Structures are given as structure tokens and as C-alpha cells.
Amino acid sequence: MFKSQKFFRFQKKSARVIKIMKKDYKAYLGGSVIMLILISAIFAPLIAPADPYKTNVTKRLEGPSLQNLLGTDSLGRDILSRLIYAARPAVLVSFGGIIISVIIGIILGLLAAYVGGILESIILFIFDVIRAFPPIILILVLLSIIGPSLLSVIVILGVTIMPRYGRVVRAETLSEKEEDFVEAARSLGADNSRIIFKHILPNIFASVLVLSGMDMASMIMWEAGLSFLGLGLQPPLSSWGVMLQESYQYIQTAPLMILWPALAIMLTMLGFSTFAESLRVALNPKLNQEV
Amino acid sequence: MALVEVKNLKKYFVNNDGLLYKLANKGPIKVKAVDDVSFKIEKEDTLAVVGESGCGKTTVARSVLRLIEPTAGEILYKGRSINNFNKQELKAFREDAQMILQDPRSSLNPRFIVEEIVSEPLYIHDQIKDDLNLLDRVWELLDLVGLSKRYSELFPHELSGGQARRVGIARALALQPEFIVCDEPTSGLDISIMSAVLNLMKKLQQEYQLTYLWISHNLHEVRYISNKVAVMYLGKIVEITDTDTIFNNSVHPYTEALFSSLRGINDNWNYQEHEIIEGEVPSPINPPAGCSFHPRCKYSFDKCKKVEPELKEVEIGHLAACHLYN
Amino acid sequence: MPDKILKINNLAVEYRNKGKYLRVLQDINLELDSGEILALVGESGSGKSTLGKTILRLLPDSARIAEGSIFFKGKDICNLSEKDFNDQIRGQEMAMVIQNPQNALNPVFKVGTQILDVLYFKSKKQKSRKELKKEAVEILKKVGISDPEYRFGEYPHQFSGGMKQRVMLAMAFISNPSLLIADEPTTALDLTVEAQILNLLSNLVDEYKTSILYISHDLGVVVGLSDRIAVMYAGRIVEVAQTRELFDHPNHPYTEALLKCLPDYKKTEELQTIPGQVPDPGNYPVGCNFHPRCSYSFERCRQEDPRLEKIASEHFSACFLNDR
User: Fold this and answer.
1) Cβ pair C261:B192 closer than 8 A
2) CB contact at 8 A, A190 and B120
3) Which of B99, B102, B113 sits opposite A187 (nearest CB)?
């Protein structure tokens, strides 16, 4: 039963998606950036040229040199190594936060659209409450309850942006539900789970994908902000946000220092959103006619 | 015993949403989409339901398959009420009764290839014994509707309207149903494709002893495909009989108007001297009292404005709802 | 030839697609007398709507006229500047009624206001809108809208589809155009309403002596409306004839096949079908465009393009069978 027709079909469809993405420069661009970040995150100790925590007060705020390719920071630590190590929290926060919010958002959005009634009102009320607070206040309150740590930052960020996904999923589900092909599936005797997983979710996934590509970057920014307030990563652990905040004080004496974490964040954002865009196009049969 | 019997079907859509609306205290808006409709379909018959937009013909079609729950009334399939079916019974019914939706392309999931679309009913009803032979079954079904094997790998947007329509028919046939509800299956198709679809449906009916409930507004097509016709106006059946009778000896003024305006390409006529019925179909939110056709009817008299006519037998097998005849 | 309102010579239209030009209309030759209703029929993809748009110069930027000329009242309108065309011809001498009346009226303005706008521009902004109101109500009455004074102040969503199409007709006839291009104006309407609108259209044509190019896919409608019919297939006109003549003695195999496909309440024999399918625009076969689906096709059909030839008085057909 393993190599069934379903399996062949899946193979064919994914081969098609890969074939389309192979022709798309966006897929390469985004994919290579994501690979770069993932590799730095996983193999940080192997790649980093120096110990990111080793301070050297005699070499404070130096510019790029052969020894320190990107220069040193206020405590004389190697910026490149710190940047590489900082990919770890970036990946954890952005992926973790997005996955949490996408999963909760899809579940709540589908429930609201599908069950309706009181449940829908309650779910929408929860969304509204979360969105009504300025996110920073909400995060601060929640963090002070749970206590600062990387995990709590991930969970809280995920919950905070979740209503975006919930609302999108609910709205799209409501409109997909009325589509003719859903009615056709119903008249064939398909049960709700088949309709949701086979017909509705694949058709609304594109919107979620694009949204999450954009949110990845803002997750990193949020983490930076929280770390600055001392609620995210605790020193001496580094993250791009922490580095950004540190360099900020020295913008006049060592202007290059702020450039590196900013570039890293920008590149990540670009990588994620271009890859998401490319994937969205490849997954939609209507958008890629010629294969 | 009739295959399908609809007894006093009523479907009202009620809208009382919105705070402002409740404050205005107008009471709910009630749209009587289908109001007391009864008919029978014998096995291997084709009952065509004709009428203008808003007459409730699509609502009847969907109610018959229990895609919407009726407000009142009963639908019997092989003598059993489908409204009381439990989950298993309903699933068995869905295996027996299929639907072909109006829009050929939007009734196909845009992310499915034809193979998935046509095999979906087989998956739903666990009719796949040997998964590897699935493709053979799909090809067989495609062949039945006149599509070659290569179509099985295409997406709906790569099909023409006529091909998409055939895929929809292949899907409806996959479970070897007895009863198919066809909701304007030829609307929006070009003439040459429409005739091909009509011929196909007729051929399939003979080959597989199918029974059709055929929703349409094209009277020429109805003449060709059906042997019984029900004419609907504002949620009610005004006349129902067999096709020959309705084309030659219709009695209800609305049917008369509808069919007298019918001209074919072989007639010598033009729109300038053409007999037309004045006015448009009134809103079903606020239908006229009495007979709902009376404001447009040239024979209307006092009683028509007050009393609603009942559907009564004019002659054997010929029912009409008009005061002129009882 | 003062009587010819419209004269199209050897027109060819191309669309740009991925840097290549695809020919969607080819060898179009058509004449329209004043006060005549010419129906342009064909299946989807035959190019009939493109032809209508070409005459009104409403083609998108990606399209161009590759060959030929269009003479309107003896004037070559292909060479007119866009500004002159808009000022002198479009909306004045030529008007259009489109398929979907739901989208043709602006939903945020009252119907009356929209009619007044047309009248206001027609009067070259000389008369005030107040003076024009009586005229506007008169027009609404003429197109058969009951209680026009009251209806004047209503919004488009309060009008039914049939009434909207009446308003569109009213607006088209305000400037008393010489040519009206009607692109399937009744497709979205009910049977009885369709008959009403076409009855109205016939009467308006009689009154205003307007020529109409009626684009449709519905032969059953055209038979009761038009004086002449031009049948299009895959970007070409394959047959032109008087309406009755075309239905009684179709010459081109495509027309013949189409008529045999059409379900008709008087017909009980089995419907015929045309094998194969309409070729994609711009991807036409070599030779006669219909030859792959034609049961009479022979060697010559696969090699040469047939041209419209006169086969009887006022009956033209593009088929090599007539040469044999």
C-alpha cells in the first residue's frame, strides 16, 4: 500500500512545484539566504572564527581587519562570531513564533468559520482583545507573568500576532465554504474533515504563507526590542536585536558596528519573503501555466 | 413507487440580522424561495424544472439532495424520507444521488488535477479496492464522457468550458448513481458544446437507466432532454405535466406566455411584432397577494387578487394552479 | 456609397503575448447599411467581441491593428487621433451597450444623475442639469420604465437587471448615434425580460434609424432581431447572409453544423455535434481554420485560406466547396 496512486500523485505534484521553483530566481535568492542562516545557526561553533563571548578591552570598537573581519564591539568581542551565534535565537524566535501563531490561528479561524454561533463570537472576541492592546504592553504584561526566557518570548510573540492569522483564515474559509467545488464535495458525501483538509486549507494556505513570510522579520525585531528591555535574551547571549541595541550607543564613534546586525535582519526578511512568494506562486496551478 | 417524491416542500430564507435592523423593529425579512412544492419523478424519467431567475428552481434542486435543510415538507427517495436519514444513511444516499452544478469550472477544485477530481467520490465512499488500478477506473470514466487519458493530469484551468463540464459529469458518474440533479448543466456553454453535452447526457441516461432532475431556463433544451416539465413561478409550481402536453396544450397563463414567446430558428418572426408579457418577476420578499402571477396575467379577475390557486388536476397527469380551470 | 455607415476592409488585429504577436482577427470585410441590424454570431473565442472593441477603439494596449482599415461614414477612423475619436465619434456617433448591466452603472450615483450627465455633455455643457431633467424623465419613459419621476431618484441597486439594461439603452440612444454596438446585452436576463428588451431595441432602431452591430452567441435571439447575419469562426468571418437565407440555406459547413447542433423545440431528431474544439486565438491551423473539424474538408482546405466570395445576391461564404 505504500507506493499507492496517492503517493505517485504526491510525487508528481511536488516534482512539479520543484520544477517551477527551479526556474524562479526568487526561490534561489530566498532559499540561499535561508540556508545560510540555518547553517550558521546549526554549525555556529564550527564556523565562527572566534569565541563570541571572549572580551578584549584593548581591542574595543575596532573597524574591520584581517583578524576581526567585521570589527569588534564595545567589549572587544568579534562581531562576525557574535553575528553567527545570534542566528540561533533569530531562527528559533522567527520559526517558533510563526509556527505557533499559524497553528493556533488556523485552528481558531477554522472553528470560528465552521462552527459559527456563540463559539465564533467568543473566538472573535479573543482576537479583538489581543489586538486591542498595544502589542508591547501585552507582551510586557505576559512576560512579567511567565518570566523572561527565550521560550516565553517565542510563545508570547506567537500568541500576540496570532489574531492576524485567525482573522485571515476565518475570512477566507467563509468565502471558500461557499465555493461551488465545496458544495460539489458535499453532494458527493464528503465529511467536514475532508472538506477542510482537502478543499479549504490548500486553497487558503497561500494567504497564510505570504503573511508568515512577512511576519518572520518582524518577529526578529520584536525579539530585539524585548532583549533591549532586558526581557528577552540575557547577556552575554547575543541576538541580532541585542547587538543592534548595543551598537546604537556607539553610532558616532563606530558607525559600522550597527550596520552588521541591521544587514543580517534585512537579509533574513528579504530571504523569507521572497521564498514565501516563490512558493506561493509554485503552489498555485493557475499562476504557472507553462511547465 | 416513484424514485423521488417531494411533498409540500417549503424553504424560507429568514434574515433578521443586524442590530440596526432589530432596532428598526421591522420583523425578520422572509424570502419564500420555495413555497409548497410537490412532485414525483419516476425511475428513468427526466423532470425538467423551468422558470425565470428567482423562481426557486435551484433551491428545489439543492433541497432534493439535502444540501440545504427545508423549512417544511418531506423528500422521499425510494419511499424513504431523506430528511430523517442518519449519517450512514445519508452517505449511502449521496452515493446514489449526484449533482452536476451550473458553473462547469468553479465546481472543480482549482488545486486538484482531473484524476483527483474524478476519483474523489471513490475515495469518499471507500470504493478503491486496489489503489493501483485507480487510474484505469479514472480513464474509463473519462472515456465514458469522451475525454482521452491525457486529460487526467490537467488542472481545471487548463480545460475548456466544455471539457470541464465533461469532467464534472465523469465525477457524477463515478459512483454509478441512479439519480442525478442537473442544475443548468449547459448554461454558459457554446452551442456546439451544449449539443454534445445534451447528447452525452441522453446517451448516459439510456445506458445506465439514470433519472434526472433537470433545472433549466432553456426551453428548446427542455424539449430535447425531458419527458416531464414543471413550470415554476415565484417559488410555486404553476403547471406540471409531460413535455408534449406543455408544448402543445399548456393551460396556465404564465406557461402560455412563456411558451408562446418561444420561437425557433425555423420560424419566421421578429421581436418587433413579437408577443411579450409585460412586467418582471416580483420580489419574493413581498409577493403579490392571491395568485402571484395576477399582476402580469391578461386573464386575471377578482378572485385571482385574493385567493391563491391550488395545483389541481386539469386532466389526467396534467396539473395546473389557476382559477380559470377550477 | 453614401448609405454605408460602416465599412471594414481586410482588417487584421493582433495581440501581443510574451513578445510575439498573435493574430486574433484576420481578413475581416464587413459593411453595414444605415438602419440595419447586423448580427455577429460565433462561439466564444471566435473574436466577435474583439471586433466590436476594435470598431470602438477600445482594444487594450497589448493589441494592435495589423492591417486594413475601418471607414465610418466614409472617414477612416483608424487614423484618427484618440482625442478626436473620443470627441467626435465615441459616445456621439457610436455607442455601446455591454453584456452585464450590473457593472455598467456606477452604484454610488442615482440613476437619474447618471442620465443627466450624459445629457449635459451632449448639450456641450450649455444647458443646466435642472433644465435637462424633464428630458431625462422623458427618456426613461420612452424605454418603458414605469413611474419615471420616482425612479429618477433611485440608485442602480434598486433597479432589476432588465430595468438597468433599459437605462443603458436610454443612455446609448441619447446622443442619437448612427451606430450602436451591442455586445450580448441580454445574456444575463430572463427569457421574458429578454424579449421585452429586444422588442424595445427593435422599436428604437425603427425610430432613430440607427444601425446596430449585435454581437451574440445565441442564434435563437438573432433570428428574430437581425436583418443580416455574419458568422464568425476562429477570427474570421465565414459567412454573411440575410437572416432568413442563412437559416434556410446555410452555405458554409460551420454554419450548417452549428444549426444542426442547436436544440429547437420543433426538432425531435438527435442533435449533431461538431467534433474537436475551437482552436485557441492566435493558434489557428494552416489553411481554412475550420478544416480539422469539417466533414467535407479536402486537400485544398489544408493549404490555402478561403476568402469570402459572393455565392448569391447578398450571400457571401468563405469555403472552397463553392469553387468545385
Assistant:
1) yes
2) yes
3) B99
ipTM score for this prediction? 0.86
pLDDT digit string (tens) for A200-245?
999 998 889 888 887 887 887 788 778 777 777 776 777 887 788 7
Q: How far is B36 from chain A (nearest CA, A)?
A: 24
Assess whether B211 and B248 both reside in one domain: no
Q: How many domains does chain B have?
A: 2
Task: Name which CATH class applies to C4-105+159-323.
Answer: alpha beta
Interface test with C, best of B53, B150, B160, B195 (most C CBs within 10 A): B195
pTM, two decimal places: 0.85
Mutation test of the interface with chain B: which of C205, C221, C223, choosing the one with the most B Cβ atoms within 10 A?
C223
Q: Give the per-residue SS3 of chain B.
A: CCCEEEEEEEEEEEECCCHHHHHHCCCCEEEEEEEEEEEEECCCCEEEEECCCCCCHHHHHHHHCCCCCCCEEEEEECCEEHHHCCHHHHHHHHHHEEEECCCCCCCCCCCCCHHHHHHHHHHHCCCCCCHHHHHHHHHHHHHHCCCCHHHHHCCHHHCCHHHHHHHHHHHHHCCCCCEEEEECCCCCCCHHHHHHHHHHHHHHHHHHCCEEEEEECCHHHHHHHCCEEEEEECCEEEEEEEHHHHHHCCCCHHHHHHHHCCCCCCCCCCCCCCCCCCCCCCCCCCCCCCCCCHHHCCCCCHHHHHCCCCCEEEECCEEECCHHHC
Question: What is the longest distance spanned by two Cα atoms in chain C?
Answer: 68
73-132 of B, contacting C, C-beta below 8 A: none
Give the chain B residue nearest A201 (alpha carbons). Answer: B111
Helices (H), C143-242: 148-151, 161-174, 191-208, 219-222
- Print the domain residue range for B100: 42-71+87-226
- The pLDDT tens digits of the residues spanning A48-76 come to 777 777 777 777 777 777 777 777 777 77
Q: Domains in chain A, please, with CATH? A: 18-48+75-287 (1.10.3720.10)
Nearest CA in chain C to B258: C192
Within-domain flag for B146: yes
The shares of helix, strand and coil residues in chain A, as percent rounded to the nearest 5, are 75, 0, 25
pLDDT of residue B42: 93
- The boundaries of every CATH 3.40.50.300 domain in chain C are 4-105+159-323
Contact between C265 and B220 using a beta-carbon 8 Å cutoff: yes
**Separation between Cα atoms, residue C302 and residue B98, nearest integer Å:** 44
Do the beta carbons of residue C188 and residue C162 sit within 8 Å? Answer: no
Joined grid coordinates for residue B132: 493501483
Substitution target from A8, A14, A19, A187 for chain B, most B beta carbons within 10 A = A187
